[in-house]
């Protein structure tokens, strides 16, 4: 089977350690926009979606973005994009008339004809909403110079879902919360986050589960407040969650160090020796090892490899890495093999 360097297939922000990087993997800003006098994508025929896509494609700078018609690529490639957080789970099964533009640096993208005509998003490593916001707004400004965007003086940007009307902004942070999960404190955190007007979602956003103790914190609606206020709200909530996670980690080190060391090294040992392993189990074990690295129990030099593995062992990435379509049982076998080989290099 054909193999590449695993770092070639991993999105840059996944392996870069940004601000508050022991807890926050990435920050994302997403802007929902629609064209005037056009039906929303879910109410448009495939032919109309293609017309809208062609209009939007003309407005996107080809020197900055690579544009892809989703029906022109394989379902495996679309799933890989979903695993990389470029596409949403909702769009990959119905690609006709839909598209995506991906920036050359792979930190920004534009989904075309998902729930809205445009979903502009930018991602930065760590807790760095400023960088993500700056890039997303720059793309938005460029597109609004060319396209007629649906906007109402009273309600703001008009969107397919009422919760996105207004600024059309969704700010989010992907956080790694093994301490809170291990000590069963997640329900308390979920409640406090909800009270602050935010919501905690799974690894791929709304309607998905948390895998590898990875969660997304984001605003629930975009009407009635400014972009800056949503920005500040997320930073406040993320800072609170970071503090709670760190307190739990410190408590575990102080009071249950032997238990924690045993858990971390058992997980590392299993990853180094397992012959068959599922995605969920692999992510859970990699989460344990990442916790051990962040607490200084394991060398920090291993962190980029562990973070890369947390993405590369997902089903579509694994098959792209191996250059072969595999059934679930064979994926579990080759996933274990890839993990063993990669960890043996360290």
Number of strands: 10
Give Rg in angstroms.
21 Å
Distance between the termini: 22 Å
- Percentage of residues in strands: 15-25%
Number of helices: 13
Please characterize this protein's 3D structure.
This protein has an eight-stranded antiparallel sheet with strand order 2-3-4-5-1-8-10-9. It is of the alpha+beta class and 346 residues long. The longest helix has 29 residues, at 227-255. The chain has helices at residues 6-9, 12-15, 46-59, 75-83, 129-144, 178-182, 186-195, 227-255, 257-273, 279-294, 303-312, 315-322, 328-344, and strands spanning 24-33, 65-69, 99-103, 108-112, 118-125, 151-152, 156-157, 169-176, 198-201, 214-219. Helix content is 46%, strand content 16%. It folds into two domains: 8-250, 2-Layer Sandwich (Creatine Kinase, Chain A, domain 2); 256-344, no CATH class. Helix 8 (227-255) crosses helix 9 (257-273).
């Amino acid at each position: 089977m054909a193999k590449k360097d695993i770092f070639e297939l991993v999105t840059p922000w996944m392996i870069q350690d940004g601000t508050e990087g022991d807890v926050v993997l990435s920050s994302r800003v997403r802007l929902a926009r629609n064209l005037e006098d056009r039906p929303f994508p879910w109410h448009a025929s495939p032919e109309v979606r293609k017309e809208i896509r062609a209009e939007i494609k003309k407005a996107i700078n080809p020197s900055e973005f690579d544009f892809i018609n989703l029906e022109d690529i394989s379902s495996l490639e679309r799933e890989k994009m979903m695993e990389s957080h470029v596409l949403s789970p909702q769009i990959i099964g119905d690609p006709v008339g839909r598209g995506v533009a991906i920036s050359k640096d792979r930190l920004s993208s534009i989904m075309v004809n998902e729930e809205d005509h445009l979903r502009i998003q930018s991602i930065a490593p760590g807790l760095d909403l400023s960088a993500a916001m700056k890039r997303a707004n720059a793309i938005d400004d460029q597109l609004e110079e060319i396209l007629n965007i649906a906007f109402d003086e009273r309600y703001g940007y008009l969107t397919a879902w009422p919760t996105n009307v207004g600024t059309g902004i969704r700010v989010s942070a992907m956080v790694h919360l093994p301490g809170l999960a291990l000590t069963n404190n997640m329900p308390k955190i979920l409640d406090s986050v909800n009270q602050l007007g935010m919501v905690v979602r799974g690894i791929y956003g709304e309607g998905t589960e948390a895998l590898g103790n990875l969660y997304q914190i984001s605003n629930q609606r975009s009407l009635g407040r400014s972009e800056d206020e949503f920005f500040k709200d997320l930073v406040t909530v993320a800072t609170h969650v970071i503090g709670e996670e760190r307190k739990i980690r410190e408590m575990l080190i102080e009071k249950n160090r032997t238990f924690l060391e045993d858990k971390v090294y058992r997980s590392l040992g299993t990853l180094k020796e397992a012959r068959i392993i599922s995605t969920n189990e692999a992510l859970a074990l990699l989460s344990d090892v990442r916790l051990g690295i962040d607490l200084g129990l394991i060398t920090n030099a291993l962190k980029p490899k562990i973070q890369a593995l947390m993405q590369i062992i997902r089903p579509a990435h694994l098959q792209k890495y191996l250059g072969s379509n595999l059934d679930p049982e064979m994926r579990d076998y080759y996933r274990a093999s890839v993990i063993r080989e990669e960890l043996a290099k360290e």
